[in-house]
Amino acid sequence: MDGLRYSLKRLMAVLCFLALAAASSAAQERATISGRITEGKKGDALPGAVITVLGTRQGTVTGKDGSYRLVLKPGTYEIRVSLVGHTSVKRRVTAGAGETATQNFQLNENLIGSDEVVVIGTRGAERTVTNTPVPVDVMTAQELRSSGMTEVSQILQFMAPSFNFPRASVADGTDHVRPSTLRGLGPDQVLVLINGKRRHTSALVNVNGTIGRGSTGVDLNAIPVNAIERVEILRDGAAAQYGSDAIAGVINIILKSDANASFSTMAGTASTEFKGLRVNDGGVLQLDGNYGMTIGEGVLHVSGAFRNRNATNRSLADLRQQYLTGDPRNDSPVFTNLRNHIQGDAKTMDVGGFYNFSYPLEEGPTLYSFGGYTYRNGLAAGFFRRPLDDRTVRSIHANGFLPKIETEIRDASGTAGVKGSFDEWLWDLSGTYGRNSFDFFVRQSNNVSLGAASPTSFYCGTMKFGQLTANLDVSSGFDVGFSSPLNVAFGAEFRLDNYIIEEGEPASYIDGGKPIEGTTRLGPVGAQVFPGFRPSDAVNEKRSNVAVYFDAEAKPVSEVLLGGAARFENYSDFGSTFDAKGAIRYEPVEGFAIRGAASTGFRAPSLSQSFFSSTATNFIGGVPFEIRTFPVNTPAAKALGATDLKPEKSTNLSAGLTAEPVENLSITVDLYQIKIKDRIVFSENFNQAQIQPLIRPFGASGVRFFTNAIDTKTQGIDIILRYAQDFGDVGVTRFTAAANVTKTRVERITDTPTQLKGLEETLFGAIERVRIELGQPQRTFNFALNHAVGDVGILLRTTRFGEVVVRQPAGRVNQQFSAKWITDIDVSYKFGGLFTLGLGVNNAGDIYPDENVATDNNAGIFPYSGISPFGFNGRFVYTRLSAAIN
Q1: What's the confidence (pLDDT) of residue 192?
Q2: C-alpha distance from residue 39 to each of 87, 110, 729 (Å)
Q3: Bridge partners for 654 per DSSP
Q4: Of 182, 528, 590, 748, which one is least surrounded by beta carbons within 10 A?
Q5: Are 1 and 498 in contact (CB under 8 A)?
Q6: pLDDT score, position 354
Q7: Would you say 36 and 104 are in contact if contact means Cβ atoms under 8 Å apart?
Q8: Nearest of 196, 192, 133 to residue 582 by alpha carbon
Q9: pLDDT tens, 511-557?
Q10: Which whole-number Å values give the CA distances from 170 to 88, 167, 205, 290, 853, in the listed order?
Q11: What is the DSSP string of 95-138?
């Protein structure tokens, strides 16, 4: 990690040198363009509007009074002004040396957001939502905050039907960083960008039975909602443009960059009827603030947030026998309704902040930087260990114990860059470093093999992931006789990844050799619920890759937009890959267009999939097994036929149409097919008698590993309709209807290695197959009605989450959980010219998912499955107070 920091410092020094050099070589003559941006109807100032000088890297944002100022070389420029929720405007402005040209702009409100400028999916001129050749959704800051939800992933799930965020529970670290997905694929098959720059992933590997098992994704919830200006979701394969992970699509989060200030507080709690009882738990308190300021011609915007969420619990009574047979305490009335488990949201406390800075040098490049830091402390429970359990040291926990996993998660990132123009070429040079660390602690537990000397709290180790990325992007437009300039872009990327596992304290993993109290049987080893990482599990692995890309886009005729991209990458661990993409948009009649794209893509196996290692003692049929997760390059894994991981390869096809038949109405329909070859999965436990001679020499009685086991095909359709109507004094009504239908099928399962013949269900079996094919909603519908009149705003939203299916291991049958409608209501009122008060309820109908089959779920203690896309907390009520200072 020290090497990464040293490399980052050197990169920042180079960037600063280039910026100063470019500034000193700039021409001395200056021209100024200034003016004011106002709202078209009322004439009010519009702070935060973005002014872009097309064909250059220069631009600015308006201040509190709507004014702006640009210092440029003398000449004629095309100036574009855009603001979320408004129609963008362009003007050509000429300014001579030593002169100040005044150009004011008026922006009219765009009621359906069809004119939102997007930067994702193109390296040419920024395009709007409806004139892109592939589907792009835009969620504005106002939309993100118009609910009682405080997590980015949860908000996106209720706004984008193709996005899924299930609520895992009793799943170790996954309780604390829950994975999200796009188009029914894996959490690691969607690329996340911040201001167009690659975001690092979490260090956590999801190894339990949840959606995304075996994957490592980006923790979107580490980004405070109040720091976000908008979210762009590119729903199409884009690995040829952006590199690894962009199989399902790309999520680009744009940070706020204005010079305004705002503050808000939100408080809420679950208020639900659970099994006939009134329950109030899961209280949430959030405080956040934003402050933007001008620094010369530049802007610095800082955002900070604090969130405290208490745990929820929807477990039922544990009716099993608690004590050893013959113990009179088994007959105690208290055990007829003993609620000793916790199923629900983990208790978490988050605090963090982000910044976004840009500073244009006079007549030269623009310096920019952004980044943030988030700290999360979480506490979640495992399975209760009964007093009669062999996993209980009875002299310590005479009445059993509920072990808990505490985590400390630190997430930090920073980007610094410089961008400018040279003749007709635009260039952007940047460096990004991101790091996530995940510390595990176990509380209220014991290590049975240490007997009565066992501690009850343990430090179990740390996982870390760091990523250093350097990018150079160059682009220019050429007049080749087409309807529009031919935009050409090319660039290079260097990336260095580092994955670390640090061992826990000895008591968390050591074998003390003590028998189970009252028996001669050896006790299970390690801290109960999460044994610590052993010295043999510790790793510190690095890999690097270099990429080059080429991108072109043009309109040969005014009705046709063509685009293409190609990318070559070379990885230090598995070699090279080449991918390409082509896209077209044809608009025969203004307001109606068809579009389509075809591309190849890839996802490099994560370092965690290649090198994750852990050890746990599992009791199967009363027999202890030392279950080891071995990296595929170790002798133990190779003894079972494991091979080095290969990148996943994809082929993406999409076709769609866009229509704006009348004013304030837009319709988009997009079909897609995604084929993935050599998809990486995480095997089950190999502990059968036939493989014992193969793994016993490695100190294990059970083994699992990652493998390129399957090929899958995903097909689906996205439909989005937006409509708005201005009723004058009665207010403005906006309506959105969206639907996603998707289906994934496993098309091929790799041949089982000779050593594992007959164990196909362990390598890739029915449980994981059902999770991949049916574990996420195949039909999701979303309807939202937003009405604003005067100072009052009303939001009604209802979402249908389709059926999901779980393979119940005990009965070896599939259990289907039926579709549910979840309705949210939010009412807000602006007063005092500064404040907004909001009241709302999420899941107003107090809807719960279908219950688990009791016999397959720990004697009916856990009534709900963590696969539920909307969780199982029931109704949530909240209030929100905010203040905007412009």
Answers
A1: 97
A2: 11, 11, 18
A3: 597, 672
A4: 590
A5: yes
A6: 98
A7: yes
A8: 133
A9: 999 999 989 988 889 999 999 999 999 999 999 999 999 999 999 99
A10: 48, 10, 15, 35, 17
A11: E-TT-EEE--EEE-B-TT-TT-EE-TT-SSS-EEGGGSSS-EEE
Say if residues 571 and 604 touch (Cβ distance below 8 Å): yes
pLDDT, tens digit, for every residue of 656-676? 999 999 989 999 999 999 999
Pairing of the two strands 100-102 and 31-39? parallel
Closest CA to 553 of 486, 469, 456, 497: 486
Residue 394: how many other CB atoms lie within 10 Å: 19
Tell me the C-alpha distance between 523 and 716, whole Å: 51
The SS3 of residue 489 is strand
Residue 470, burial from CB neighbour count under 10 angstroms (0-12, 13-18, 19+): buried
Contact 867, 815 (CB under 8 A): no
Pairwise CA distance, residues 830 & 838, whole Å: 9
**729 CB burial (10 A radius; 0-12, 13-18, 19+):** exposed
d(CA 517, CA 801): 49
d(CA 613, CA 632): 10
Contact 833/884 with Cβ under 8 angstroms?
no
**Strand, coil or helix: 552:** strand
Q: Is 10 exposed, middle or buried (0-12, 13-18, 19+ CB in 10 A)?
A: exposed
3-state secondary structure 683-749: CCCECCHHHHHHHHHHCCCEEECEEEEEEEEEEEEEEEEEEEEECHHHCEEEEEEEEEEEEEEEEEE
DSSP string of 603-618, one letter each residue: EPPPHHHHH--EEEEE
**Cβ pair 502, 461 in contact under 8 A:** yes
List, in sequence order, every beta strand (DSSP E) within 558-644.
560-571, 575-589, 592-603, 614-620, 623-629
Distance of CA 386 to the CA centre of its chain: 37
Q: Alpha-carbon distance 470 to 472, whole Å? A: 7
d(CA 656, CA 717): 9
How many other CB atoms are there within 10 angstroms of residue 848's CB atom?
A: 22
Alpha carbons 771 and 679: distance in angstroms, whole number: 14
Q: What is the pLDDT of residues 67-107, one digit of tens each?
A: 888 888 888 888 888 887 788 888 889 888 888 889 999 88
Strand order in the sheet with 702-704: 614-620, 623-629, 702-704
Strand pairing class (623-629; 702-704): parallel
Cα–Cα distance measured from residue 420 to residue 418, given in angstroms and rounded to the nearest whole number: 7
Q: Would you tell me how many other CB atoms lie within 10 Å of the CB of residue 754? A: 8
What is the rounded CA–CA span in Å between residue 122 and residue 133? 9
pLDDT number for residue 692 = 87
Cα angle 809, 815, 819; round to 5: 145
Q: What pTM does this model have?
A: 0.91
**Regions of the chain with pLDDT less than 50:** 1, 3-4, 6-8, 10-28
Token representation of residue 285: 């308190």
- Which whole-number Å values give the CA distances from 473 to 237, 488, 555, in the listed order? 20, 11, 22
Alpha helices in 540-677 (DSSP H): 607-611, 635-639
Kindly list the distances between the CA atom of residue 145 and the CA atoms of 86, 314, 394, 551, 574, in Å, as whole numbers in the listed order: 19, 27, 50, 36, 43
Q: What are phi and psi of 609, to 5 degrees?
A: -65, -30
Distances from the Cα of 233 to the Cα of 246, 250, 461, 720, angstroms: 11, 6, 35, 13
What does residue 479 show for φ and ψ, rounded to 5 degrees? -85, 105
Secondary structure in 3-state letters for 808-868: ECCCCEEEEECCEEEEEEEEEEEECCCEEEEEEEECCCCCCCCCCCHHHCHHHCCCCCCCC
Which residue carries 């679950």 as its tokens?
A: 270
Give the Cα separation of 86 and 80 in Å (integer): 12
